[in-house]
Amino acid sequence: xxxxxxxxxxxxxxxxxxxxxxxxxxxxxxxxxxxxxxxxxxxxxxxxxxxxxxxxxxxxxxxxxxxxxxxxxxxxxxxxxxxxxxxxxxxxxxxxxxxxxxxxxxxxxxxxxxxxxxxxxxxxxxxxxxxxxxxxxxxxxxxxxxxxxxxxxxxxxxxxxxxxxxxxxxxxxxxxxxxxxxxxxxxxxxxxxxxxxxxxxxxxxxxxxxxxxxxxxxxxxxxxxxxxxxxxxxxxxxxxxxxxxxxxxxxxxxxxxxxxxxxxxxxxxxxxxxxxxxxxxxxxxxxxxxxxxxxxxxxxxxxxxxxxxxxxxxxxxxxxxxxx
Length: 324
Hints:
By secondary structure, the chain is of the alpha+beta class. The protein has twelve helices and twelve strands.
């Protein structure tokens, strides 16, 4: 009998960038408030997370999705490894060369990284389960997808529009694990769905921040963070709205911003450039807040210092850091 395979929804090559000199990660579990040291294999992984039993039944490779991810991970790793080397040597405001094809690869990777995680899978499957329970039409289900990308608050009334059906006992059981994997995979293979996010990232202003302080950037088991342009709050949906931008740590020293071009047009001069901002510990903590907010469970660092993570976690859902 085939044993279950551990599938990483955040790849090991990425976590290795955040490992200490011994190749180990420090991890803070925000659900238990415990920190521990571990290897890169143990974080952001689930058994058979992408395995499709339907493919196996038809004689196809059930791990097709996992293998496709491996291809783009390799390309992204090669591209960004080069960037990391350059960015540590550049002077502020200096630009790096990013060919169009590399921009497309990185944009697609970031879109997939955001939507492939356990957190995204849970949200997508919750919407789909609601649609199935309420027998929504194909048009309404597509609207649900679109609203997830634009504003999760606008999607909820669609799923709840038939109040009578919500009051009745469900006509079907909840989604099985295999159904959830199938639904999640369908979304990840939906070119329109993925393409909407990737195109937004590709068309954005890309700016790189360099952290020379002794306090590193964090990452997490859900590392692609989104921030709104108006009040600067971290969000988990609605990331195609005007002004919302990506904050993605590439290493403990480098963070990447992808800023929506029309709202942030004043910083277009820094496209593909190293930011002139000098990152103090306070500014590093400001970006680390996004990783604490986005994390499904685990916040990852090269050092065992999660005092700020603990402090910030207690404020999630309040306005304490809304304008930070």
